[in-house]
# Entry
Amino acid sequence: MQFTDLGLKAELLRAISEQGYDTPTPIQQKAIPAVMAGHDLMASAQTGTGKTAGFTLPILHRLASGPNTRTSKRPRVLVLVPTRELAIQVEVSVSTYGKHLPINSVAVFGGVGINPQIAALRRGVDILVATPGRLLDHVQQRTVDLSGIEILVLDEADRMLDMGFIRDIRKLIALLPKQRQNLMFSATFSPDIRELASGLLTNPVSVDVAARNTAAETVTQRVIETNREQKKDLLLHLFETRGWNQVLIFARTKHGADALSKHLDKAGIKSAALHGNKSQGARTRALADFKDGKLVALVATDIAARGIDIDSLPYVINYEIPNISEDYVHRIGRTGRAGMEGEAISLVGHDERGFMRDIERLIKRQIEREVVEGFEPSAIAPPRPVQPQRGARKPSAPSKSAGQKTTQNRGGPQQHRSGTRHH
# Structure
C-alpha cells in the first residue's frame, strides 16, 4: 500500500512526498481510513510506530475537506499530550504535513511564558496541541474557547494517567461539545485507561499494531550484572570499548541524571541531563544538540524522555532499572523503531535483579545475561533496597541468574545500525 492509495488530499500527498515517504506504516494504514471516515479510534501503539502522522494526516484531510473560509477563531481540534516535548513534536508534525494547507496550529505547554500563547490563540487556531495543566491555565484566564472542538485526541493516554492528569483531563472533556470525534492512543491499556475509554469513545475502531506490553523485536536486549558501586566505571568502559556515539541513558531520579551527566562530562563524553527541573529552553537545546551529534549522551528520567523522537537512535542504556515494569518497555522503544535495529543494555545491581525478573515476566522472555571482565558482581555484596519513585512495587524474591555469559568485550565499535526512516 502507498500513501496515494489512502485518498488523502493532494496537498497532503505533496507534503508527504517532500519528506521522502511513500509507504505508510501499519498503524497509518489502519488508522488513517478510520479517522477520515469519522470513526472514534482506540489504538494501541508504541512510540516509533508512526502514530503521530497516523492521526495528524487524516485530521488535516478532514479539516481541509470542509469550508475554505474560517468562520471562528476557536480551535476545531484538541490534541492532549503528557509532556512539553511531545506537544512540540506533534505540532511540528501538523505544520510539516499541513504546510500546503490554510490551517493554523499552536502548541501550549508550561515552563514558558503564557503571553505569546495567548496572542497566538487570539489570532485564531484550527489545531490546538496542549498539555493538560497549561490548557487549564488558559481556560481559567478565559484565553481559550473549547466550545468549537470537533475532534479530540488523547495521545499517550497511559502516561497522562501515570503522571496524575486524569482529573485535569476530565475537567477539559467536560468543556467540550458532546458531539465530536474521539481518538485515543496508548502504549498500554490498563483498567483505568479502559474505564476512561469506555466513557469517552463511541463504537470505536480498535487498532493494535503491536502485542500489548511486548518489547520491540528489532531491539537486541542484554543485561550486564555488576555491583552498584561499579556502574559509573563500567559505563565509561563500555563507551571506550564499544565505540558508542548517540546513546540515551536512563536514570531513576533528577539528581541521579545530573550526577551521571557530570561524571560523563569529566571523562570527556559530552552529555546533558534531561529532566523536569530543567527549563524548557535548556531541554530543547539539549535535545537539539543530541540530535545534531553535538552531545554523545543524553541522561534522562522516564517522564522527561516522553516525546523524544529521534530517527535511528542506536543505543538505550538502563543505568538504573525502573521499578515499574512497563517503563522498561517505553524506554527501549526509543530505539529499534520502524524496522530499524537497536540495542538496549541494562546495568543491573544485586538489588535490582527482582525488578529485572518482573520485567521479564511482563515481556514474556528471558534477557541474555553477560558479565564484563573486571566488573564482575561480588558474590557477597549485600543487597541495598532501591526506593521506588512511584507505584511502590517490591521486586521479586532473589534467585540465581540463568544463562550468564562472561565476555572480555575488548572489541571495536559495534556494527553500524541501518534501516528505513519512520515518521
Observations:
- The longest helix spans residues 51-64.
- The chain has 15 helices and 15 strands.
- The longest strand covers residues 219-225.
- The mean pLDDT is 83.
